[in-house]
User: What shape does this take?
Amino acid sequence: MTETNQTLTSHSPLAESVLRESGQNVNLCYQCRKCSAGCPISYAMDYKPAQLIHAIRLGMDDLVINSKTMWLCASCETCTTRCPQEVDVAKVMDAVKITAMKKGIKPTIPDVAAFYKAALANIKKCGRMYEVGMIVGLKMRTFDFFKDMDMGMKMFKKGKLKLIPSFTGALTTWKIFQRVKRIEKETDVQ
Ligand code: SF4
Ligand code: SF4
Assistant: This one.
């Protein structure tokens, strides 16, 4: 392998973790920046999607996992559809979040992590999203009890928030969670 090739092909722990968690090889990126140009949230990110991918390739693991970028990502997949190298950038964002969580890194935007946890716990329990339960779960995690109350009341008045959860499909969802747990245990991914 030439020195140039070694520079272009990253085997940093984070690049390896991203590959394991998402199947995405960041080394395919040739920095055209189409992902950053199309990202609707990039204006608020500390590192734009292409910069984050490049930082992973450069082995700047600490910078990446302490970044706000992946927590701000809205998973809209615009980046993924624009990438000429078929790098699924949205999946890379998820993989970086998973890696950060597994390493016990405190999320740079705690409310987003709290939302994910509340939503997942809610879906696991009810089989699908039960909004009122999710909101309660989120408030219990963030202790921000009055945030967005106005919007919540408007949604309730319009019948968008149901008081009674539907448990349709709960068993199937529970089986999916069990299966994922089993796979994670078998692969023992750290
Ligand atoms: S998936 Fe995330 S990174 Fe990609 S364009 Fe959407 S918000 Fe930006
Ligand atoms: S669009 Fe794809 S190739 Fe271009 S910078 Fe983004 S990840 Fe890299």
Observations:
- The pocket of iron/sulfur cluster (ligand 1) is lined by residues 38-39, 41, 49, 73-79, 89-90, 93 (CB under 6 Å).
